[in-house]
Amino acid sequence: MSERQAAILKITSEVLGAAREFLAREGFVELLPVITAPVTDPLRHNTDRAVIEAYGGKWHLTRSMIFHKQAAVRACERIFSFSPNIRLEPSEWGHTGRHLFEFVQLDLEARGATREEVMSLGERLFTYVTERVRASCCRELRELGRELPLFQPPFPRITYREAQARYGEGFEEALSREAETPVWVIDFPIEVREFYDREDPQRPGILLDMDLVYPEGYGEALSGGEREHEPGRILARLRTQGLSPDDYRPLLSLAEKGLPPSAGFGIGIERWVRFLAGLPHVRGTRLFPRVPGELSHL
Ligand code: AMP
Ligand code: MG
């Protein structure tokens, strides 16, 4: 058991180091993560919020750094962070193999970038890190009995509607099981995503966003897209989703002062390591896993 654990930790460390190296070469600046915030990602599928009270105010434990990334690209053109997220997922999700309630995402954003550009960056980042693990962690992969599949960008693409038609309503698992390389899902319909993904001005109702899905049944790897940055559009999107503009005042105030257009994505580290190491559950990637519905000793 401890040999396996050591191998998984070595792979994790290689992922973090290789990603940092790649992003530094691409001109990205690393930000320290934000842990508490007056406003965080709404994530409408998950209504259970982790909030602490201090100094007469309420502080959300960060569910993603989306708004902070949008604010940060005003200062630096390209930024990333290894961002710890708390998401109180339903207890039943403890069995999906993909969910923790505390996890880390490599969250990045680029000012003025298009979806196409961040998809290309994502493919290069993903391939660089995977090849580094393949080359530097041979012993560890052998210890784990993992034969990592080979793949090369560009990765295939499918639209949300095509994926739905081919694999049914909740297509992620079926698509992932059938895929032999990572595959992009693009063009999500406006009603299934959060308000900050940018609506395509040429195709109302369709978003300029994407997910990357792992092969071999490991499911979603990352989500991202271009962002809504104009105050009027943010307000309209909040309203159609039934969210109170008052709750998003800090974001709206920033947008009124001027948020630049940007695009980016977040890739979950535990899911990445799970895929690379070939593990049945993300819990195996952490020494102190936080699994929905379970208590922990340390
Ligand atoms: P999202 O913006 O919700 O798509 O989250 C970004 C990425 O974080 C996802 O693509 C996953 O890789 C990862 N992620 C999201 N939720 C969880 C979770 N509960 N446990 C582990 N990883 C997660
Ligand atoms: Mg997602």
Write structural notes for this entry.
With 298 residues, the chain is of the alpha+beta class. 35% of the residues lie in helices and 20% in strands. It has nine helices and eleven strands. The chain has an eight-stranded mixed beta sheet, sandwiched between helices. Strands 2-4-3 form a three-stranded antiparallel beta sheet, with no helix packed on it. The mean pLDDT is 97. Residues 64, 87, 89, 99-100, 103, 105, 220-223, 266-268, 270-271, 282 line the site of adenosine monophosphate.
List keywords for this structure.
298 residues, alpha+beta, 9 helices, 11 strands, 20% strand, globular, binds adenosine monophosphate, binds magnesium ion
Helix content: 25-40%
Give a short account of the largest sheet.
Answer: 8 strands, mixed
Number of helices: 9
Element string (H = helix, E = strand): HEEEEHEEHHEHHEEEHHEH
pLDDT averaged residue by residue:
97
Q: How does the overall form come out from the CA principal axes?
A: globular
Low-confidence parts, pLDDT < 50 over ≥5 residues? Answer: none
Q: Bound compounds, please?
A: adenosine monophosphate, magnesium ion
Number of strands: 11
Strand order of the largest sheet: 1-5-6-11-10-9-8-7
Percent in strands = 15-25%
Distance between the termini: 18 Å
Could you give a short description of this structure?
The chain has helices at 2-25, 66-72, 115-136, 138-144, 160-167, 172-178, 231-240, 249-258, 269-277; strands at 29-30, 36-37, 51-54, 57-61, 78-86, 102-111, 157-159, 183-186, 209-214, 219-226, 262-268. With 298 residues, the chain is of the alpha+beta class. β3 (51-54) and β4 (57-61) form a beta hairpin.
